Design the sequence.
């Protein structure tokens, strides 16, 4: 039961990134996670990025778990949730996941599902997410 805001923000790091859509004020830059810039945007200008490292390190959830927010109090700030590698029978309900480096591509996913079964996501709010709100992957993709 989540009955407060769990704030994982506050540990910033600097690293390399790129600007695949330009360097103007309205353009989103990318963290060079897993050499994404080199592999997929090799012609994009390089740039320096400063981001909160918690966004790239999600909370790993095991099988047979329930995560329920109490009223509007169940907030996870700065980290996402990851379910992978055979995880099953999980309920995520009434939770708000927010502030995962929204200014950057590859800033973090709110909920990642990879190789899971029987996952129920209900009344979950995501906001200010740097990549995907809910990402579904095949096991060989992660």
Sequence:
């Amino acid at each position: 039961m989540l009955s407060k805001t769990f704030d994982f923000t506050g540990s910033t790091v600097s690293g390399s990134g790129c600007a695949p859509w330009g360097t103007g004020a309205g353009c989103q830059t990318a963290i060079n996670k897993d050499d994404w810039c080199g592999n997929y945007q090799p012609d994009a200008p390089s740039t320096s990025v400063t981001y909160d490292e918690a966004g790239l390190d999600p909370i790993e959830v095991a099988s047979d778990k329930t995560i329920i927010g109490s009223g509007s109090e169940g907030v996870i700030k700065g980290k996402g949730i990851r379910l992978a590698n055979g995880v099953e029978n999980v309920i995520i309900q009434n939770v708000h996941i927010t502030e995962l480096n929204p200014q950057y591509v590859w800033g973090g996913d709110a909920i990642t599902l990879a190789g899971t079964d029987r996952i129920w996501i209900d009344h979950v709010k995501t906001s200010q997410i740097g990549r995907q709100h809910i990402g579904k992957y095949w096991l060989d993709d992660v």
Notes: The chain has a mean pLDDT of 91. Helices lie at 36-40.
